[in-house]
Records
---
Amino acid sequence: MPGWELFDENEKRHIDEVMETGVLMRYGFDGARRDRWKARELEHAVQKKTGAAHVLMVADGTAALTTTLAALGVGAGDEVIIQPFTFVATFESIMAAGATPVFAEIDDTLCLSPESVLEAITPRTKVVMPVHMCGAASRLDDLAAICREKNLYLVEDACQAFGASYKGAAVGTIGDAGCYSFDFNKIVTCGEGGAVVTNSREIYERADMYHDHGHDHTKGDRGAEGHLFCGYNYRISELHAAIGLAQIAKLENFLERQRANKRAFKEALSAIPDIRFRTLADPDGDSATFVSFFAPDEASARRAARALKESGTEGTFHWYDNNWHYIRNWEHFKGRKFAAPVSSDILNGMPDYSKRVFKSDEIVSRTISITIRLGWTAEEAITRAERAAIAVKKSI
């Protein structure tokens, strides 16, 4: 999965071009930078790949989520509906905005269940934020229809799914805004980086100002134009953008390799009658970063995960026990262990999640995902897939 598996001279060339100027910041220093604008170039490249009208590069995926919510005016008194199977940054960004995260459920796509969203909507709901988990799209048609009917924003957390699509459109471009991550372990990496994409000029302009202390970059001299509102420093550096420029040029090759390697795993695992693969809302748009399947029950999932690791199958996840990606083990969140006092408006709006039983438990407790690597040859993928299939078959 991670793009760093295929680093080459192109990343070094782009980095060297930045180092030759000594300008590591994306704004200003026009004379010294020799007309080299890596962050700006990467925004254009992301725009070309996704078809989004507007792209803003930021420091990381969390910054993209936080910036997007701020651009939409999300804050105190608002609720944002998310799923309990996601990375912790999803709920962190909502709380950073001063809003309340509200958890709905997932379905067998491993993404947000539209039916559970309808049950979670209250008069305070402002945003529905599906997460395209493990590189594949949510049921976006259904979610978009709900948001239109209820007059809610649809924000796509596509931080795990750059390169994926839904019915021909890049994930992230279907809602009011979308967020990507280009961190070290993503299919396209900047080391650290993220992006906000939107087809709304207004959302883009507000996000652009917010991510750089409220500066209006349309007025020329950054800092001389005044500040329209408060913001933060969520800028990407030229060095990180330089790496991303080299990486994004390889995206089609990355997707081709991943999809071929994933096919090898699905073919091998398909011979096991007791497992069922994750449902894909759009199989053709899957970025193929993981192969995910359901064991018959939690006990057999645990046995299979253990057998896979013992067989040397790297990147095996039984998500039910994962500290980062499922609410069951978010003791810091459920126990309300925050570094600084949190607004009573947020806390009063949150149920006691330490006592809530999620329907998603039944799905996640049976789910196993295996990371698909870019660096495997076709022969290595087949060998690894066959070995994994043997381990799973013996354990279930």
---
Amino acid sequence: MINLQNINLDTLSLCFTQAKTHAAFGTVIQRIPSLSQADPLAFAIHICYQSPSNLQSHYCLGDTNIQFPLMSVIKPFSFLYLLECLGSEKVLNLVGIEPSSSPFNSLQQLQDDHGYPRNPMINSGAITVADNLPGENPTIRTHLFCQWLNKLAHSQLFLDETLLADVRATRSQINIAIAQYLYYTQHITNLEIALDTYEQICCLSTTVQDLAKLGYVLSHHNNYIHPQHRQLVNSVMLTCGLYEDSPQYTAKIGLPMKSGISGTLLTIIPHQGAIASYSPPLDPTGNSIAGLAFIQLLTNK
């Protein structure tokens, strides 16, 4: 297990430099114009941890001022938010917590499961969660959710309106098919609200510093969220957060992690803190190559 309090700064810098070279083997996503323009050489790391005096402390490296959309890294937090709003019994009637060996946007997986989403880290589960968030319409739902997150972590998340326009203009046909099947099987009640809410919350944007602060909330007991909900979110991140690659990284690293197609990666170090990274080039599964390389290097060293 990584000990964040005892990290050697020279080792941290070496891991950062070595991990950055791995980005050359990845590809920046092209489907969404705003994301396709991301700098493939950009790399940022922020570590937020509890110091011996029980205060938040930080390490940061690289292009830490860059703002980026969370995309699928928002999924653990929308799941957490719904757990807090409805309770675990109701939420687990809506979405499962089982790993999937299929891609994150697999319609076949959903059909095999008769419309019951396998877990909230894949698109079918996240769309179902979005359909049940509080609020009259997608804009209000996104505002309330963003407000809750910022209060929870003292962060400054915001909705990237330019990116949202791109996402709407290039709406994923696979996500439409998934939402249609969810609606057909009565697992969501309003197809358009579910999809638009999902797209909006994925466009919530921030920096690695604020993402690490959000992750910190998942690493420690606190008075704001139910401990069983926090534990459940971490468990699902551990087994499902990197899609079909989750089992191999559970064996290699054994930490709750969640990736997003913007190049974002969040890693939770239980009882210690969180590591947030940003590097746009992705592997074929959709995970940040440099971000994963950094966590592996740091774990090994």
---
Amino acid sequence: MRLSIHALLDYLIDDEADILLQIEAAEDEAAQRIIDGTMTASTTSELRPIPVEAGIGRRTWARGSGPFRVEYHATVDVERPATDISRLGATPHYALPGEAVPFLWPSRYCQSDQFARFVAETFGAFEGGAKILAMADWINSQLAYVPGSSDASTSAADTFISRKGICRDYAHLLISFARAAGIPARMVSAYAWALEPQDFHAVTEVWLDGGWHMIDATRLAPVEGLVPIVAGRDATDIAFMTIFGRADLREQTVTVTRLD
């Protein structure tokens, strides 16, 4: 499908601050092709792109003071058919490539070591992709999607206790479960067609049978309409905008429209 993407971030920055942006759709020859893409920012400083450690997408440094407005427009062709992962096997640890190994371990928001016993007792009868799907089913049935129920400090352990959250919380919990079972898992920020209300979306990727496979535990958007931006260990790595200073939000919108 061909998608039109527009993102607007409008902030008022106190004094002068460094800003790290992660809002450009990632290039991926296998699943999505960027037909055109432009990011503009109301700043006199030069925008400085840098790579992301996980190899998906890029970050961009900027500087700003006072009114700071960023807009991103893109047209993207997406060819990402929904994949049945139930028959995919888990890769033995000794066979994992370097890109997957860092995503075996606990991280700031994904305390996978705290879930080892629960995961073994609850999902021990499943293997590989079937285990991941069972985890996603459990999360979807046990959690309530409640906007405003979590904040920047909410971890997977917090979500497990409260049984509510938003997309990032669903993803953090699924990542934690997968890592507790010895399956590499990472967090992906994405634009999402058919997501209501429209916003930046967070999903999970797991390493199965030699490759990354995307899972949305919220089930709020079809996987075939997702456009990844960046990937990382958890929300720490994928924030769409990080301001190293003080700022107030004035306006923020995301629009994803299907063109074909």
---
Amino acid sequence: MTTPVQVTGQILDIRRAGAYHVISLTAPGISEATRPGHFVTLGMGGDESSMLLRRAFAIHRVQSRGVYGGTLDIVVGVHGKGTRWLVDRRRHDPVDIVGPLGRPFVLPKQSVPTVLVGGGYGSAPLFMLAEQLRERGCRVDVVLGAASEDRLYGALELKRLASTLTITTDDGSMGTRGRVTDVLPDLMAQGDAAVVYACGPMPMLQRVAEIASDRGAYSQCAVEEAMACGVGVCMTCVLPVIGKDGVTRMLRSCTEGPVFAGDRVRWDEVGSIPPDTLGAPTSGGH
């Protein structure tokens, strides 16, 4: 496990990308240790802020050397006061950063055909992953999906990294009308995919994991759970996962995840504690 560090970074650049913002930050000591699938948490609102909860962001890209030392990029969708504060920062503004956090994607030991699936800005961690898979000689097919064209992220760049790129949008504004899971079975069959990597909304991950299992492939899913602390203390991001011993445990997305084996997550029961979970409360409450 990588030991996370807490640093005061600086905003280097904020640029618009469709519906999202890409933020570049100095992050010495974090970028050098980052692997695809790791994330960071950022303090919101500065020292005097009433926004106590940190926000978690998948690490999109890192650069371990340069004028500023280590830097990293995150992709941000504005959803509330915290993310609005973040995208309104200026160059050289300080930001408190903790990372790299979580368990990253596991890379195959041999060169095998792979498919990468991204939903919305869930595509952010797939760039580093695609690069490292290519370095290992793996075939990399990518499928990106979103509600509309402006909510896709990084299609042009991923096209350069991938063997093939397939795009789907709910409204048909770009690529195939529909969802990533509509085109995934054929894509897996064409490339004879052995491993599927996915990041995006939970319903998408559930279906990707099911399709991969149906085809005898291994899936790794980076879950998008709300993480209040990011370091395993608050227990807000737990979900039921079946261990190798067949026992279900409530695991924390921030420390045991965010990447899980797709066939191990009890997707239908995310948000609840299944009765057969280790340590689950009994009906009598004792």
